[in-house]
Structures are given as C-alpha cells and as structure tokens.
Design goal:
single chain, 452 residues, alpha/beta, 13 helices, 18 strands, elongated
C-alpha cells in the first residue's frame, strides 16, 4: 500500500520538510521540472505549450519550458495571469527571449498544465475555464502534480512528492499517473497522517481454497433482490458469486418472473430465516424492495452486502461491523441525505474523513464506486485507481456485490472482503478489456473466474 495525502496534509508536509531540512525551493522546482521532462519526453508531440500559473506550480512550468527549449523542442508559454509570486516572477523575467509567449492554444501538439497545484482552493474563474476548454484542442495534455482546478482534462499526470487524494476524487480525470520526488527525504514520505492508502493488486489477501474444500465449505450466498422490472441483476450477482468461489448460491425473490438458466442457482421466495446462509447480498434489481425482508436479513446476523435498491433502507441503524455497503456516487449522495450529513464529494481534504465518519456511524465498510474506488472503515481509507471505462457497464456493480458476497461466505472479514473483491473485480475488468475491448457483464464474470 502506498500512502496518500489530502491537499492540506501535503501542504503541511511540504513546508515542514523544507524548513526542517533547509531545502532550497528553487532547487526543488528545478528538480521537479527535470523529473517531469524525463518521465514524459518520449510522449511529446510538437508544438509544445506550457501553461503557467501564478504560484510554485507555475514556476515548475517555467523551469520546464526552459528545459524543453534547451533540448530543442518547439515550445511556447502561456501565462494565465500577469500576477505571480516572487519566485514565479523572477523566473518569468529570466526566461529566454527565444521562447515565445502566446495568448491562445493551437491545434494539436502537447500541453503541459502547470497552472495550479494541489493547494488550489475555491471555484475555477472564467479565465481558467476558458483555458480548460481550449486545452481540448491538444493531442496530449500532461499535468504537473495535479490537473489544475479540478477541471483540467489530462492524459498524463506527474504527481510530485507523494500521491494526493485530489487525483482520485470521483470527478477527477488525471489520466495515467506517474510519480516523481523532486528532492524530499524518502524516509519522510512513507506514512499518511490522513490514514489514506493507495491499493495495488499485490495488496490482495484472498486465500486459495484447500484441496478438500467442497460446496458446503466454500460457502452459501443468498442474493435477495430482483423484481418484475429488473430480472437480470440478481442473476448476474449470483453468477459472479459462483465465479468468485461460492459453493452454493440461492436467489431469494418475490418476483415470479425470475428464472436462471444456470440450474445450479436455486430460486426461492424470501424467507424470515437467513441464518442458514453464509452471507447475504441484498438489493440487486430489488426495485421498491421490502423493508421487512431487509430487517429479517439484519436480524439473522449473517454478513451482508447492501447494494443498489437495498441502500434505500439504510438510515441510522448499526450493522455491528458485519456489513459492506457498495453505493455508486448517486447512491452515496442519497445515503448521506438519509443519515443527515454532507457528502464531501467535491472536497479532497474532507472526503476521506467523511467516509470514515459514515463507516463509524453505521459500523460498516463503505465501498464508494467510481473510476477510483474508495473503501473505508472507521480507521482508514483505501483507494483503488482502476481508470477503466469498460467497467462502467450495466451489471458491473451487481458483479462486484456477488464477488464480495462470495468472499464473505468464504469467511473473509468485511474490510478484507471489500478490498479483495474490488481488486478481483478490477483485475477481471482489465482482463476483459484486453480480451474483448468493451464488453457486457457476462464477459466480465467469465474473467472473474480466471482472475480468482
């Protein structure tokens, strides 16, 4: 796992390390610019325009423009404003007169976005929004540290010093994320004071089954959901549970229209006793749902995944550390409204703490589904940066809920099941994209079995 900082913590660490180790800010800027150049030089299509903001991020851009010029690239600079801090204005004054200053962005070529770094606050003004629209003309956009103002479209972002939450917000579009440390002591960059960590596939703790495991030891998953309007969702969740390792799967539904072509999936009406199952997944395709059934599930004491239409019954109850909630962004907003709190979706400083607050309030694990998936319990937040648009397909969330249900049924604790389930889902999505390009949830499920 890799530590991730909120912007406030990044700023505090930046200033603190500079003071503690007597680091030279101009040297850090020069090192940052050289690092960005070295990581991205092979990608450049000319002409190159460097967008320069008024602060240290802009100073990174000016230093980068000088490097590009010295390396023989056709480069120009565009200043967002006439104003700038002292270091920024000094570098502007010393910039080679051979580097033209332009007022607009030309078609094609490469844009380096060095307008605003992670410390940007507030709303983007009209000038920044205009530039962000013009950037769409470029063939390649490379952001220095973060995409500026939260509105810049980037193909590549070179994160400086450490990873930051702003890169992984649900609305963020950082493209491929690269990293460069411009000169801070590595030993000081190994922890997150915000308890936020970036996951990789190697962080999965999912265990293989033993040779003598069979259907009863691999767990029995109950999928509660489906309706006359939505017959496919519980079937996808059920099939995904099998491919993720469940030994038995039952769909409990009030709809007489739901049938499953897989004869191994049992179909039953809702029961008042869910304690006979190893885990329960409630919500896929449930439409209006049934609050009494929801309460019966909770009273069973079985570990539960609450997804989709099941989330509408979540308010202020405690799940006693035995539940994983899997809302997408819209469902997360409605969940926050139901428990009377703001969602913090536009605040990279607040979102990690808000998710932990909600997880603590409900005594549950929260899985916020977006391009980057945020997983939270009361103690920490874990982010998996998928950035795979092919996963944004109907039924993908049902597949994830079935996977997590299977891992709970196999005995994993809710946090581990959430982390392992997200990693497996994302890995299957990558494999499916490599195999099919874009695909349906059915193809995704096939890859779950292979990735398991």
């Amino acid at each position: 796992m890799q530590p991730v900082l909120t912007p406030s913590s990044a700023s505090k660490l930046d200033h603190g390390l500079i003071a503690e180790y007597s680091l030279s800010e101009p040297a850090l800027i020069d090192n940052a610019a050289m690092g960005v150049f070295n990581l991205t030089a092979s990608m450049i299509a000319e002409p190159v325009t460097v967008l320069v903001g008024p602060g240290n991020n802009g100073s990174d851009g000016i230093a980068l423009a000088s490097i590009l010029h010295d390396k023989g690239f056709d480069v120009s600079v565009l200043y967002l404003y006439e104003k700038g801090n002292a270091e920024n204005l000094r570098r502007r004054k010393n910039l080679s007169s051979a580097i033209p200053v332009v007022e607009s962005i030309s078609e094609g070529g490469t844009i380096y976005d060095a307008l605003f770094g992670f410390s940007f606050h507030g709303e983007a003004d009209e000038r920044l929004r205009t530039i962000a629209k013009e950037v769409e003309k470029a063939s390649l956009v490379i952001s220095v540290d973060v995409p500026s103002g939260g509105i810049m479209r980037s193909d590549v972002t070179v994160s400086l010093m450490m990873q930051k939450t702003v890169l992984y917000m649900p609305s963020a579009a950082p493209g491929t994320i690269l990293e460069h440390n411009p000169g801070f002591p590595e030993k000081e960059l190994s922890i997150s004071p915000d308890s936020v960590y970036l996951l990789s596939d190697s962080d999965s703790t999912m265990k293989s089954f033993r040779e003598n495991d069979y259907k009863n030891t691999r767990g029995h998953v109950c999928i509660v959901g489906g309706s006359d309007r939505y017959t496919g969702a519980p079937r996808l969740a059920a099939r995904a549970a099998f491919f993720a390792g469940a030994g038995l799967v039952t769909i409990a539904t009030e709809s007489e229209r739901i049938r499953d072509e897989n004869p191994a999936v049992m179909i039953t009406p809702p029961s008042s006793d869910y304690s006979r199952f190893s885990s329960v997944v409630v919500g896929p395709g449930w439409d209006k749902g049934n609050e009494n059934v929801f309460e019966d599930i909770l009273e069973s004491g079985r570990p539960v995944v609450i997804d989709a239409d099941g989330l509408k019954f979540v308010s202020h109850q405690s799940f006693h550390g035995n539940a994983v909630l899997t809302p997408h962004v819209g469902e997360y907003r409605r969940l926050c409204a139901a428990i009377g709190t703001d969602d913090s979706l536009s605040d990279p400083d607040a979102l990690p703490y808000k998710l932990r607050e909600i997880a603590s309030h409900l005594d549950a694990v929260i899985v916020l589904k977006a391009a980057s998936v945020w997983i939270a319990d009361r103690d920490a937040v874990y982010i998996y940066h998928g950035a795979n648009p092919s996963l944004g397909v109907a039924g993908s969330g049902d597949v994830l809920s079935g996977i997590i249900g299977a891992l709970l049924a196999a005995g994993e604790k809710p946090l581990n099941a959430a982390i392992d389930g997200v990693i497996l889902h994302q890995r299957a999505g990558r494999n499916a994209h490599n195999t099919y390009g874009f695909y349906s949830a059915e193809e995704l499920i096939l890859e779950v079995g292979k990735a398991r």
